């Protein structure tokens, strides 16, 4: 080297052992000059690869770019000028060392390369180049030394030696400084880049390198968030690569690829198997089936592989940063050891100390920057994972089969999306610890070995022993967590059902029973929580005490093994800081492993869901079909699941194009199943189905989206005003729109809550009509509407002259009046087609069926002179169904005759007169929430469902106080006190250690080592015990709070009036019960634990540093101010971001559950694509507020850690300055404390923020625990007598009522009296207040004025349960809860089995129930899905029979039932409730024609009230209604 330079390469005397250091010219010309070049050439190949893939258009040549290029060329010129000067010298025959040729050549080529890079980057659209900034920075850094050296040499010698090179160097230095400054500015955005139409693009994409490195680009949002609470519109759009569109597409591609690969393998194995199986004759297919099944179990496609292929490349960049950070973290302990040695040697030059302090600072800053880049990559990967998984689950839920859907409830599938996807997100942060932890452990041990030798092994042994301890705790915790998830799942599922059926619970006064069920689950949940809290406090103890125990054993062994081993400051504190590094990986490793285990459970759950059977899109042939037919089914056998018995057998059906086919049959015979089979919703076991053309489907229970009424009808079609108006007219929706507030812009609540059943059904029908499809599958759309509306709809829409004429229509119906007008009738019995043909054919097919018809028709002929053809047909048609009745054989004849008579009435009434033009659309008033009376139009867009308020601004102290109250204030104080003590003990132990290291060495040994070790151990163990106690107390307090808060919320929700549920989406309430309760259970306690821990650690650090170097106090104030500002900016912004995030999260799930319930409709209309888009949009909206949340953490981290790094810098600096007055032990103590403080400071801000964010959960739960309640359930001193009401008399006195404050009265000044045992029919047009009357009886609505008396008792005086349990209602929508049938009939276990069987027999369910293997314990699924609607209605009848009170309210229980079930119910009521007072809200007038009196309501007042006969005679409103219905002449 010396020959190469022509001078000495290195000289320690010049460079190190001097007060004024300098570098040799040779070193300057070689190493320093080459560093930047080596860096650039190394980075170049990777960078070029990156640029090749980076396409964002090119950037126009700007002034900035020109300047940079010109300077680059100048630099190249200057460097080569040196080269040519060397040649010039050679020509002048001076000896020039080779270095003067090599270095300028190298530097010249490198700057030229840099200049070319500037241009290449410009063409690639790079706005700010990190590679070049680092290059110019290195160049400047490496030129500073030579510059100083040159100035010093000139100063000492008084003249310039090598004038030319001297000048070029100065020019070179000036140019690189300008280049560095210029490269920090960013270029304009690229040209021709995809046009960003974004109103609010994320500044990250266009920000410069330094801005990205320090996350400076986020500052604008932090400031904005500090000035005012952030809103949706302030959020930046997502980066393209983070959007659902791109991520889910990639993931889907990989998953499909994975499935295809697995299928190939599977097919091969199956081929080998199947040959010998199929040789068996007997049950070939089944056995083959079993074998395929087994194969399936063994190898499912792995979702993990798909995830890895999609997300790993991006994640690896983060891992690379992590590697650098791990290596850097070991530099500071080494520097600490150098610093302590420096303090010890009294004659070392001072600049060493300053250099060490500076290096410590630089190293810490680098570590901070790199660490946060790593975290950014990890978090973004996590965020993308969640987007991807959510998207995949959503897409899957649209195609899974019904049997698969049964195996997991809506709640569980939503959980996959919320909880399990979240698990992945959480794992990502620490996944790198899998390899990083072993690496850190290895390095730390290596350095420790160098410091302390073999004694380290003792410490390592303790650590290794702690690992199984921690692992055991983790395993146990995980087991608890799984158990707790189970309880939580079932609790949420139950809550979901309770909230969906809350009205029914109120009407039946069943709340206590369900409340007890929830609390029972909750008790188990908290029991598990308590167990895991014990475990957690143990693991906290291990976490805090581990480093201490390790240090203790190591030091003790080290000192005791050999007298000559002296524990001095360097050894003690360097080892301590290494042990501190060790502590993190050792604790994280088991945690990461347990996290991975948890995530693998989630992965399995998700994988299992994604591997569910999908509906076979080809099970219904859509392309090829026999000519002339629209639908053909040949030998079709269908079931609801592969393993269930077929519900439809041997179906053969040919439907000619353009015909109208009616499907009739009684409850549960498979009518709806047939429609589902045509839609491809059922498993096709054999046969073939073909359906040609687009399909519109109207399900039996209308599925309504939470959107405006108009959107529900358009359902994604292009609006066409003319057509739209015609559809409204045809579906009889015009009049409703006049009544509904906001017209067709009315926002419909979840599940169509603010429309009546009939309105929902008509909206559903209107959607079908508007879709203008080729084939219409109408599953009983007419049952939910009034008879004359049904007639109108049949005539205007479905019938031969309706809007749909010429289309193929399949109509499932119970309305017999329409049968003569249809082209074909299909009669189903028990899943088989018993007969089919046109109306006339069925009469001619001389079977028992038509026999009956004919006889009946003949009788009619004799009685009437000239029956109109129409009427005769009606009567015939009527009985096509009744022949199947199961009553015919065991009922006495009189009843049979009476039934015939009723039936005739019923037919005539449902036949009804022509549709009247006046506004007499008599329709059911919604049971859920009646159509509101016309409101003034001004509040045109009054929203029913208020947007969820997200609190803004600082969380009030009162909320913390609420939580402390829930915990118990005394316990709270005790906890703080324990924390103070534990930190005092920790400081004590470390001060003692520092004192021990300063103990003088006598004859190569230290004295009283045993005493030293003893005290050290005592202090450490004291700290451990305190930690255990405090974390334990905290956990208990947390569970206490969780119990109180949940109980309060539940209590309140059961007492909340119905109006609250009408205006609040269930999802929002469920969110309180799931998300917020989860936060209180499992998030807040650990957050408080961490907060207190970090707060006291930071405090003790300050105390230690100030006590060792008092000068430090000066710096604390500015640092604290900086810290405080960053903290306030961050907390304000981050808290609001988290709030926005949680508010934008619920729509994802509510839209998802809405989709699952309406999946069949969405599929029928082929709208999957747009629903997927909506879901993606909602996920993106959510990530839009999540992403700035992540970045805000990085932004904070870098700034707070900078404060921490300053603390390290100043602690070291002041130690250097006060070198003479300090001993090594104190310096070691204060600097090693300072090295730890960064972490604590960072976590402290995080925890403040997390605490403020999560404590919001307490606020939200409080808000819902304090909503106004209804009257008390039981008022002890006013309980009515046991047998009340004994007579069943009702009296309304001046009674007025309204739905909610601010709405008009629905009933005004009602006065009426009903005697015991009377049968009263209540009729009236829509919105007349029929349903409201029943709601008033049950006090679901409270009076505005006036009162209701039952048997002379004012109902407003007694408790609600006393009232409600003494009345019986058969509600309009039959609501069942998941659980046994017995639970659904008798949740309080009041009745004996005999009584229940008796009720079932009377409600005609006995045959069905006794045919089930589990009889009364037959499991009803969620919402009673596994019973037909008619059966559910009968279950409600059975409930009424069981309660059998003196007053029965029948709320249009005739909705979705065929005439037969209707008759059953009417008859049962007539016989069983003979002596009771019965109030019926009538729907078909014939049901009430033989009632004692009829009450006609009009606009909330009594219009008429008398016997049916006299009302008809008086020719009033009732008469006109009866005339419309054909019951009066």
Describe the structure.
The chain has 1529 residues and is α/β, with parallel strands linked by helices. 62% of the residues lie in helices and 8% in strands. The protein is built from 51 helices and 22 strands. The strands form 5 sheets. Strands 6-7-8-4-9-10 form a 6-stranded mixed sheet, with helices on both faces. The chain has a 6-stranded mixed sheet with strand order 16-19-20-13-21-22. Helix 16 (410-430) runs antiparallel to helix 18, helix 18 runs antiparallel to helix 36 (1066-1108) and helix 34 packs antiparallel against helix 36. The longest helix is centred in the middle third of the chain and has 51 residues, at 511-561. It starts with a helix and ends in a 5-residue tail after the last helix.
């Amino acid at each position: 080297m010396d020959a190469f330079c022509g001078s000495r390469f290195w000289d320690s005397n010049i460079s190190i052992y001097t007060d004024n250091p300098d570098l040799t010219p040779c070193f300057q010309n070689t190493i320093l000059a080459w560093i930047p070049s080596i860096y650039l050439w190394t980075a170049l190949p990777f960078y070029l690869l990156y640029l090749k893939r980076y396409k964002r258009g090119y950037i126009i040549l700007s002034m900035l770019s020109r300047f940079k290029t010109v300077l680059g060329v100048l630099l190249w010129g200057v460097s080569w000028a040196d080269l040519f000067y060397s040649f010039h010298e050679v020509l002048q025959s001076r000896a020039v060392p080779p270095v003067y040729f090599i270095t300028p050549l190298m530097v010249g080529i490198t700057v030229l390369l840099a200049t070319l890079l500037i241009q290449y980057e410009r063409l690639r659209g790079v706005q700010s180049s990190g590679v070049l900034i680092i290059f110019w920075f290195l160049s400047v850094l490496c030129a500073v030394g030579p510059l100083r050296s040159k100035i010093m040499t000139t100063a000492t010698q008084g003249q310039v030696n090598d004038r030319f090179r001297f000048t070029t160097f100065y020019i070179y230095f000036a140019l690189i400084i300008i280049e560095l400054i210029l490269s920090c500015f960013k270029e304009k955005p690229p040209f021709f880049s995809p046009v960003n139409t974004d109103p609010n693009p994320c500044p990250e994409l266009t920000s410069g390198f330094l801005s990205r490195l320090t996350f400076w680009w986020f500052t604008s949002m932090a400031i904005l968030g500090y000035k005012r609470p952030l809103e949706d519109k302030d959020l930046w759009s997502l980066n393209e690569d983070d959007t659902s569109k791109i991520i889910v597409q990639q993931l889907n591609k990989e998953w499909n690829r994975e499935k295809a690969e697995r299928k190939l393998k599977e097919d091969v194995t199956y081929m080998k198997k199947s040959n010998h199986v199929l040789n068996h004759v007997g049950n070939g297919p089944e056995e083959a089936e079993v074998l395929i099944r087994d194969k399936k179990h063994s190898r499912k496609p792995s979702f993990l592989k798909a995830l890895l292929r999609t997300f790993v490349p991006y994640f690896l960049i983060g891992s690379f940063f992590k590697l650098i950070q791990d290596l850097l973290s070991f530099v500071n302990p080494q520097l600490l050891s150098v610093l302590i040695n420096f303090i010890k040697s009294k004659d070392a030059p001072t600049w060493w100390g300053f250099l060490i302090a500076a290096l410590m600072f630089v190293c810490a800053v680098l570590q901070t920057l790199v660490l946060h880049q790593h975290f950014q990559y990890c978090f973004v990967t996590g965020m993308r994972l969640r987007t991807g998984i959510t998207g995949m689950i959503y897409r899957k839920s649209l195609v899974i089969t019904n049997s698969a859907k049964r195996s997991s409830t809506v709640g569980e599938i939503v959980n996959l999306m919320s909880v399990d996807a979240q698990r992945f997100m959480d794992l990502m942060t620490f996944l790198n610890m899998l390899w990083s932890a072993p690496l850190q452990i290895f390095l730390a041990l290596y350095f420790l070995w160098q410091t302390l030798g073999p004694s380290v092994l003792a410490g390592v042994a303790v650590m290794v022993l702690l690992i199984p301890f921690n692992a055991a705790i983790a395993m146990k915790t995980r087991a608890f967590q799984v158990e707790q998830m189970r309880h939580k799942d079932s609790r949420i599922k139950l809550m979901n059902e309770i909230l969906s059926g809350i009205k029914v619970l109120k009407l039946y006064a069943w709340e206590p029973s369900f409340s007890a069920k929830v609390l029972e689950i909750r008790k188990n949940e908290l029991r598990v929580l308590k167990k895991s809290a014990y475990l957690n406090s143990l693991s906290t103890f291990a976490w805090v005490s581990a480093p201490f125990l390790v240090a203790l054993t190591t030091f003790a062994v080290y000192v005791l093994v050999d007298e000559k081993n002296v524990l001095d400051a360097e050894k003690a504190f360097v080892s301590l800081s290494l042990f501190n590094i060790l502590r993190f990986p050792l604790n994280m490793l088991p945690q990461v492993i347990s996290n991975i285990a948890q995530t693998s459970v989630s992965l399995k759950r998700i994988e299992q869901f994604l591997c569910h059977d999908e509906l076979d899109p080809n099970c219904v042939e859509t392309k090829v079909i026999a000519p002339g037919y629209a639908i053909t089914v040949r030998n079709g056998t269908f079931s609801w699941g592969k393993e269930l018995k077929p519900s439809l057998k041997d179906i053969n059906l040919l439907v000619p194009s353009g015909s109208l086919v009616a499907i009739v049959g009684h409850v549960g015979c498979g009518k709806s199943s047939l429609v589902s089979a045509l839609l491809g919703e059922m498993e096709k076991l054999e046969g073939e189905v073909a359906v040609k053309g687009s399909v519109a489907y109207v399900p039996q229970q209308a599925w309504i989206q939470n959107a405006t009424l108009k959107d529900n009808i358009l359902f994604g079609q292009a609006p066409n005003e003319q057509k739209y108006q015609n559809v409204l007219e045809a579906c009889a929706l015009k009049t409703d729109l006049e009544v509904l507030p906001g017209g067709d812009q009315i926002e419909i609540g979840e599940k169509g809550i603010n429309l009546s059943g009939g309105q929902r059904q008509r909206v559903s029908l209107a959607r079908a009509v508007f879709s203008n499809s080729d084939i219409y599958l109408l599953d009983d759309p007419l049952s939910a509407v009034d008879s004359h509306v049904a007639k109108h709809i049949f005539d205007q829409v479905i019938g031969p002259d309706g809007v749909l004429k010429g289309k193929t229509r399949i109509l499932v119906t119970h309305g017999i009046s329409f049968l003569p007008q249809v082209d074909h009738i299909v009669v189903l019995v028990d899943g088989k087609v018993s007969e089919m043909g046109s109306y006339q054919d069925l009469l001619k097919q001389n079977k028992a069926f038509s026999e009956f018809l004919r006889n009946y028709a003949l009788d009619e002929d004799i009685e009437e002179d000239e029956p109109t053809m129409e009427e005769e047909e009606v009567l015939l048609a009527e009985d096509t169904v009744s022949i199947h009745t199961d009553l015919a054989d065991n009922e006495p004849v009189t009843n049979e005759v009476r039934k015939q008579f009723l039936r005739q009435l019923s037919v005539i009434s449902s036949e009804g007169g022509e549709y009247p033009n006046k506004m007499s659309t008599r329709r059911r008033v919604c049971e859920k929430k009646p159509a509101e009376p016309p409101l003034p139009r001004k509040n045109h867009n009054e929203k029913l469902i208020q947007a969820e308020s997200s609190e803004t601004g600082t969380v009030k102290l009162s909320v913390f106080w609420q939580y402390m109250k829930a915990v118990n204030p005394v316990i709270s104080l005790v906890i703080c006190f324990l924390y103070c003590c534990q930190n005092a003990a920790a400081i004590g132990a470390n001060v003692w250690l520092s004192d021990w290291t300063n103990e003088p060495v006598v004859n190569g040994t230290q004295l009283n080592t045993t005493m030293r070790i003893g005290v050290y151990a005592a202090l450490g163990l004291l700290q451990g015990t305190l930690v255990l106690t405090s974390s334990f107390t905290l956990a208990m307090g947390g569970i206490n709070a969780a119990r109180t808060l949940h109980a309060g919320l539940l209590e309140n929700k059961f007492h909340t009036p119905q109006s609250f549920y009408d205006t609040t989406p269930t999802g929002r309430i469920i969110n309180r019960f799931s998300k917020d309760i989860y936060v209180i259970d499992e998030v807040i306690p650990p957050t408080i634990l961490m907060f207190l821990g970090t707060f006291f650690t930071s405090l003790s650090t300050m105390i230690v540093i100030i006590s060792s170097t008092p000068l430090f106090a000066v710096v604390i104030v500015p640092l604290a101010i900086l810290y405080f500002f960053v903290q306030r900016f961050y907390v304000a912004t981050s808290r609001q971001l988290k709030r926005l995030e949680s508010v934008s999260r619920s729509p994802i799930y509510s839209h998802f559950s809405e989709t699952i319930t309406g999946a069949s409709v969405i599929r029928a209309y082929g709208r999957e694509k747009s629903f997927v888009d909506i879901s993606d949009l909602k996920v993106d909206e959510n990530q839009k507020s999540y992403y700035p949340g992540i970045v805000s953490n990085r932004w904070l981290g870098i700034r707070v850690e900078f404060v921490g790094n300053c603390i390290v810098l100043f602690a070291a600096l002041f130690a250097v300055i006060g070198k003479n007055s300090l001993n090594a032990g104190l310096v070691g103590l204060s600097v090693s404390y300072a090295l730890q403080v960064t972490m604590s400071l960072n976590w402290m801000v995080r925890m403040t923020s997390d605490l403020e964010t999560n404590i919001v959960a307490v606020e939200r739960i409080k808000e819902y625990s304090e909503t106004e309640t209804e009257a008390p359930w039981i008022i002890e001193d006013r309980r009515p007598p046991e047998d009340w009401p004994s007579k069943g008399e009702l009296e309304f006195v001046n009674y007025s009522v309204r739905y909610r404050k601010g709405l008009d009265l629905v009933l005004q000044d009602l006065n009426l009296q009903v005697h015991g045992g009377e049968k009263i029919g209540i009729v009236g047009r829509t919105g007349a207040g029929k349903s409201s009357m029943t709601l008033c009886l049950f006090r679901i609505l409270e009076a505005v004025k006036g009162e209701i008396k039952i048997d002379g008792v004012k109902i407003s005086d007694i408790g609600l349960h006393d009232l409600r349990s003494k009345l019986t209602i058969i509600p309009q929508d039959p609501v069942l809860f998941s659980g046994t049938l017995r639970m659904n009939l008798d949740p309080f276990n009041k009745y004996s089995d005999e009584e229940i069987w008796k009720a079932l027999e009377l409600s005609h369910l006995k045959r069905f129930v006794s045919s089930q293997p589990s009889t009364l314990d037959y499991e009803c699924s969620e919402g009673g899905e596994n019973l037909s609607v008619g059966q559910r209605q009968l279950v409600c009848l059975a409930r009424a029979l069981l309660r059998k009170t003196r007053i029965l309210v029948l709320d249009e229980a005739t909705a979705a039932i065929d005439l037969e079930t209707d008759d059953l119910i009417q008859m049962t009521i007539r016989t069983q409730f003979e002596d009771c007072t019965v109030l019926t809200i009538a729907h078909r007038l014939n049901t009430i024609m033989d009632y004692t009196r009829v009450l006609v309501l009009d606009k909330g007042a009594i219009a008429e009230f008398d016997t049916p006969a006299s009302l008809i005679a008086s020719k009033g409103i009732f008469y006109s209604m009866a005339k419309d219905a054909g019951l009066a002449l």
